[in-house]
Amino acid sequence: MSLFKRLLNPNYKAEEKAKRADTSDTSSYFPEEKLPIDEKFTYNFKNNGGKFIYCENWDEIIEAFDNIMLENDWYEQDVFCVNEKLSKRFEGFNLNFVRNPESTFFLSTCEALVSNNGSILLSSNQVKEKKLKELPSNFIIFATTSQMVDTISEGLRTIKNQSTGYIPSNITTIQNFEIEKEKNFMSYGSSSKNLYLLLLEDL
Predict the structure, then answer these.
(1) Which CATH architecture has domain 34-200?
(2) Does pTM surpass 0.90?
(3) pLDDT over 90 for what percent of the chain?
(4) Residue of 152, 181, 189 lying closest to 48 (CA atoms)
């Protein structure tokens, strides 16, 4: 079942439990069934405190973005965005796109969505040489379902494989939970963010 159907099917979890209960050869000694990476990311990301908005097409992305603007009263505000293509995509919202991190919110793409801890992988392609604590406290991240990876290591390989000529620096993760901040050196010095994820289905 696709991510879209799982998210919108209120009976999905009950159906899955029933399927497992009906399996005659299950045992407490069998290894626990692994969740698909999209479902695992959704669970971990929400558990971290992130706000997740799934969209099937670009019209839904625009509608979701508009709702975020209304909810937070962010119209006519400065937006830190280094991606010119992204700023053009959202230019109809009366926003002032700047390169100054002292802005109301940060609008960006990302390198990868990491399933096993619900984090978002960024690099200098998105944040230049800024540290996370130097960025606005409000984030809106645009990503696609094809960017989901299981681990940070896979995300790093993706960055390396997609790099043409140079590998971006300043690679870091956004995640809200304190335990992982202590354990994960890539999040050293980070701070919690009010984070919205606009996720576009592209698979």
Answers:
(1) 3-Layer(aba) Sandwich (3.40)
(2) no
(3) 65
(4) 181
